[in-house]
Amino acid sequence: MDSEEWSRVDAWFAERLLAGDGDHDRLLEANARAGLPEIDVSPLQGKFLHLLARAMGARRVLEIGTLGGYSTLWLARAVGPEGRVVTLEYEPRHAAVARSNLVRFGMNDRVDVRTGAALDLLPKVEARGHGPFDLVFIDADKANQDVYLAWALRLSRPGTAIIGDNVVRDGEVVDGDSVNPGVQGIRRFVDLLASEPRLSATAIQTVGAKGWDGFAFAVVE
Q1: Which of 152, 150, 121, 125 is nearest to 137 (CA)?
Q2: What is the CATH classification number for the domain harbouring 16?
Q3: Which residue segment(s) compose the domain that 8 sits in?
Q4: What is the per-residue pLDDT across 94-112, written as a single tens digit (0 to 9) for each?
Q5: CA angle 165–168–22, rounded 5-degree value
Q6: Dihedral sign from CA coordinates of 80, 81, 87, 91
Q7: What is the per-residue pLDDT across 125-179, written as a single tens digit (0 to 9) for each?
Q8: What is the count of structural domains for the chain?
Q9: Is the pTM value of this prediction over 0.90?
């Protein structure tokens, strides 16, 4: 099977399991009109994040990497009107699009979009006492993936779920000699997952509309 077949299967499931909710499609259309890169999670992956947050009763969510707010919208709907999503976005233009999208779909009152480098923003999140978070979704620059994980731990509690996206990198993650900073960042991230006694973790490979990739899932002990 190739990526075209993977996408066709994704579309088949999405047609049946995501029918009746056009807001997320309209958000992606708004992102495309704004010229944002098409690197959001897939619709099925977004629904997975939503269901996971709902199943664990998450009320406080930290997202590292907002883009145009696609995954943010899924998470915001999961936490409910009393919940809060803090999401960090490096690019001011992307953050502006995300804010506009969240206003359009009525989620701006439960989402705090912060603009700047995540490594500058995370200490401020900690200082203002926004943690501990129930769920942390890491989907930003992969070269710093291990550092983001260390921060996720600082802002967590026992039972917090931590998800790291894009960990397979078309299989390149197994290449210890790779010169790709993102690959090396993911390798350090996985090493930290393995060595940190407070974490129990696994990784799942995925194929679909986003190609061959996967995510890591950990729970704080």
Answers
A1: 152
A2: 3.40.50.150
A3: 3-220
A4: 999 999 999 999 999 999 9
A5: 45
A6: positive
A7: 999 999 999 999 999 999 999 999 999 999 999 999 999 999 999 999 999 999 9
A8: 1
A9: yes
